[in-house]
Every structure is written in structure tokens, then in C-alpha cells.
Fold:
Amino acid sequence: WSVDSKFDPDGFKETAQDLFFKVQAGWTRRDASILKPYVGDQLLDEYAREFESLKQQGRLNRLENIAMRHVNLIAAGVQDKEKYVTVRFSANLLDFTVDEASGKIIEGDAENAVKFEEEWTFAAPVGTQDWKLEGIDD
Structure:
């Protein structure tokens, strides 16, 4: 992994998982401000718009009982003055949307976990450990 001489793949998997759970918690709260330290500006703007839309609709997207199955590093490198690492997360979770007023489920299932795989790309300025989520692909 050609990121830098101090890069520890196993240590990064732990960092990536920590960031994963922080981002999921911020998503459930519909709060872009608590995500600012963990998410790049462009993605943060997208999240803020999505949160505003959910709030206007009176909806909460709940992500609960997250169980991580696998964390695999699939790409890493340095581009310009930024280093990046892409991680494939495989997890199970409850993913459902509720009406804020009534608590009724509008979409998804609060009983049966779904499996998902996503690739999350994190970036940090070279010479730092200030990793932020910059993108997610299914």
C-alpha cells in the first residue's frame, strides 16, 4: 500500500470502521454539523441537502444494529498532495425510514436486517492523519 511510510493497513481498517460508525450516526440524526470533521466538503453539502429534504418531509432514516462483516482495503495511493484509501465495507443493518410525527415505518424493515456492500474512499493531506470520507460507491 503506497500511501506513506507510516501507513498501517490494519490500523487503517480500524480508523475506517470508526469513521463509518460516526458517519452512520450523523446520518441517522440528520446533522451535517457533527459530520464536518469526518466528511469532505462536497459530500457534506450533498448530505446537508438530503437532511434538509428529510426534515421537510418529516422523515427519519434509521440505521440500526449495524454489524460489520468484512472490511477490505481495495485501493490506496497518493495523488497531488492528497493520499487516499478505498475500503469495501460488508455489513448487516436495519435500514428503515419512519414518519417523524407518527413513528410509522414508511420504507424499509425494522425487523429484518439487510446486507450491503459499499466502497468508501477516504482522503487526507499528505503528512497528516486527517482522514475524511470523500465518496461512496455501491
